[in-house]
Amino acid sequence: xxxxxxxLILKKAGQFLSNFQINLLKFALSIRAxxxxxxxxQQIAADEPPPEGCSAFVVIHEKHTCKxxxxxxxxxxxxxxxxxxxxxxxxxxPTLKEDGPIxxxxxEMGTRDFVKFHKILSEKAQKEEIVYVLxxxxxxxxxxxxxxxxxxxxxxxxxxxxxxxxxxxxKVTNETKKEEDxxxxxxxxxxxxxxKL
Length: 197
Prior knowledge:
Elements: H1 2-13, H2 19-30, H3 35-47, E1 57-60, E2 63-65, H4 71-75, E3 91-92, E4 102-107, H5 112-126, E5 131-136, H6 167-186, E6 188-189, E7 192-193
Parallel strand pairs: 4-5
Antiparallel strand pairs: 1-2, 1-4, 3-5, 6-7
């Protein structure tokens, strides 16, 4: 269930985080702070598009596969193909080398297919052979809509009401302003025209 997933996440995260950070994580999950990022990854995966019948797949410089044994073959000529664009929110496996071939894994964490790919890709990333990027992907997402906090719509209504204005008074005030401006422009102090400044 979703609740058991939630408890498992908190349990595993508790091994690395303090009590204060755990409370922050609970708050972030409650307001669905990461849902827009997950939804963005889902949309990117749909645009790839994913190979049919695959719950997890990798993209290596525009080449797709959902078979872990094909990764080595696709990496051979990867640098001759264009590199993919990486987003700010992408999850990169921590390595010092950033110029290697980029392997993007689209998978759902906790599934068997994710484990198969992650084992191979993490080993290659540790050897600094590749740049390993994970993007969340669910093969069959829920049909129900996602409700997000902090996203609103503002309606601005412009007033189109006609207002009558006496033009004679406006002209008189404009003329007096022009005269004052002319006087200011004429006055200068040690060569500085303060009216223009």
